Amino acid sequence: MQLTRDQQDAFTELLNIGVGRAAASLSELVGERVELYAPRIVMCSLKALQELVAANTAPFQTVIFQDFAGQLSGRAALAFPRDAALSFGQLLGHVHAPATEMDLDVNGILMEVGNIVLNAVLGTVGNLADSQFFCTVPELSQQANVAAVMASHVSATPSQQPTVFLADAQFRVAKRNTTGSIVILFEVGGIHSIVSALTTQLNEDRGSHHVA
Amino acid sequence: MSPDASHLALYRELLDLLPLGACIIDRNLEVAAWNATLASWSGIPVPEALGTNLPQRFPHLATWCFRDRLAQVFTSGSPAVFSAAFHRYFIPASARIGSRQSQMIQQTTVRALDASLSHALVVIQDVTAQYLQMEELRAERTRRATPSASELADGPCQD
Q1: A40 vs A209, higher pLDDT
Q2: Coil, strand, or helix at residue A138?
Q3: Under DSSP, is residue A102 helix (H, G, I), strand (E, B) or coil?
Q4: pLDDT(A146) > 50
Q5: Cβ-Cβ contacts under 8 Å, B144 against chain A
Q6: Rounded to two decimals, what is the model's pTM?
Q7: What's the first-to-final CA gap in chain A, in angstroms?
Q8: Which among B29, B74, B69 has a CA at the least distance from the CA of B49?
Q9: Chain A residue numbers touching B83 (CB-CB < 8 A)
């Protein structure tokens, strides 16, 4: 299954409404303007994500993730290359002391930022699919890349190849850009709910345009 | 199904076993359980805490950065993390180490207790010791990165 161009556009637009709210929260929290934009969301297999991550020279190894369960189940993550995560965390927290490792401050900042962004993303998904789910408290992983973190959520013998939604998350703070990745993995069946909801949404939009 | 009185009584017993500060609040942000650790930290005994409206007792919790995210826990089931870096504390308490006049530094998570979204569990971790260590480490790094006046006067070492 693949998203059509229209479905991609619709999902991207909805996602950006959600992350826009997250950006507003972050701006208030940090005390300066934070812009957050997800240019495009694509759908791919977990295997394709693993290949993409393996080919990337900057492994996305700082991963904040939350699991969700209910009518939809899976895992959502916000991931950064390690150095980008470190400098981004220090920038948001106005940490001026030189540091080469993630300390308690930066870890806490990334956890809270990840929590705000992922709540916004999952809120968008929940509204789209008109379903409610229960989320776990976020965790921060620095031991494995984002594909491995997502793969660890999948059962040892999945009945079919899991599918993920993948989007770049472009942050802009104090004229500095940081790019992360938003990844959402659905357990089997979840993707169909989302695609079906997107189709319904598009048909409704077209119907309202006709009436107008 | 919302937790009933017997569930809450059990939760209170279990929460008292934790070395973390913990409380259970309802949708109105009123305290339904307050564990012994939090009572000790805050100086607010359990009987006094029960039924307290948290934002009324602690006005900083009524500010947008807490209020809106706490509300989200009850409307969407999304957990909230309040880092020490951004917020310093959730429930004010005196530090147990270092200067007694200083504030305890806390890392807090709030999550819905169950799918009914009628109550939420607040768990508070005292991270004061780790912060003091981190600040000492940063100060030491800064000292080492900044040569002293005598080092500048002596010039580079000669082998």
Answers
A1: A40
A2: coil
A3: coil
A4: yes
A5: none
A6: 0.88
A7: 33
A8: B29
A9: 108-109, 111-112
A135 CB neighbours in chain B (<8 A) are 77-79, 111
Contacts of B9 (CB under 8 A, 6+ apart): none
Whole-number pLDDT of residue A10: 83
In angstroms, rounded to a whole number, what is the distance separating the alpha carbons of residues B134 and A107? 12
Crossing angle (nearest 10°) for helices B128-145 and A104-129 = 120
Of B78, B83, B127, the CB nearest to A111: B83
Residue A105 to residue B127, Cβ atoms within 8 A: no
Length of chain A: 212
Give the gap in angstroms from C-alpha A159 to the nearest C-alpha of chain B. 27
Look at B136 and B109; give whichever has higher pLDDT. B109
- Say which amino acid occupies B41: W
The CA distance from B92 to A28, in Å, is: 22
Beta strands A139-141; A62-70: pairing state: antiparallel
- ∠ CA(B91), CA(B96), CA(B102), 5° rounding? 70
Instruction: Give which of A9, A121, A126, A146 is closest to A64, Cα–Cα.
Output: A146
CB atoms A70 and B115 under 8 Å: yes
| Stretch A58-72: mean pLDDT | 87
A124: closest CA among A65, A201, A64?
A201
Interface of A with B in 15-74 (CB under 8 A): 25, 28-30, 66, 70
Contact between B79 and A115 using a beta-carbon 8 Å cutoff: yes
SS3 annotation, chain B? CCCCHHHHHHHHHHHCCCCCEEEEEECCCEEEEECHHHHHHHCCCHHHHCCCEHHHHCHHHHCHHHHHHHHHHHHHCCCEEECHHHHCCCCCCECCCCCCCCECCEEEEEEECCCCCCEEEEEEEECHHHHHHHHHHHHHHHHHHCCCHHHHHHCCCCC
Question: Inter-chain contact A103–B65, Cβ cutoff 8 Å?
Answer: no
Minimum distance, in Å, between the CA of residue B24 and any CA atom of chain A = 16
Residue of A159, A74, A161 lying closest to A125 (CA atoms)? A74
Tell me how far apart the alpha carbons of residues B50 and A197 are, in angstroms, rounded to a whole number: 44
Question: What ipTM, to 2 d.p.?
Answer: 0.86
